[in-house]
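Researcher: Here's a chain I'd like modeled. Treat it as a single chain, no partners, no ligands.
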Amino acid sequence: MMGKVLLLAAAGAGYVLGARAGRERYDQISSSVGRLWGNPKVQATVGDLQDKAGDVAKQAGSVAQEKVGAAAGSVAGSVKDKFSGGSGSGDQPLGEQHHTRMPSD
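Model: Modeled as a single isolated chain. Structure tokens:
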């Protein structure tokens, strides 16, 4: 996250400096950034970070799937207890929970 902020700040500073110094300075800054981005070491680092990000995303997905499965099992157990008349705290069957009186005409 901090790297993205730093990249945006550098890009913004480069833009401002390029705009103030004119088109020549802008082109100079742009070509420097292009050379930096094209550097094999930079590209290797970018590739490594992409691989790590993919691994972290897979791990996060697995953890989320486990938690959702556990929560679903818990909810299913609660629903089964409600319908089977489990030993709750004075729970009433579903049909007897609400009594609504309609006004008679």
